[in-house]
Amino acid sequence: MFGLGGQELILILLIILLLFGAKKLPELARGLGKGMKEFKKAQTEIEDEFNKVVEEPPKKTPENPTESKS
Questions:
Q1: In angstroms, rounded to a whole number, what is the distance separating the alpha carbons of residues 1 and 36?
Q2: In this structure, what are the phi and psi dihedrals at residue 42, rounded to the nearest 5 degrees?
Q3: Model confidence pLDDT, tens digit, residues 42-58
């Protein structure tokens, strides 16, 4: 994972624990999870909208709408 070993990950987690404290970590993790969920939801909605546009047949327009039929 990103070229990090077990010791490096433990060191990073300990630094985060020292910076934010044990009480704040669950709150930070919850906020991060909600942010990731919202990002994935937006990504899915954009992909769905893009797929709808790509799959729709082109709308047929009148060849010359200014001509009057006589």
A1: 19
A2: -65, -40
A3: 999 999 999 998 887 77
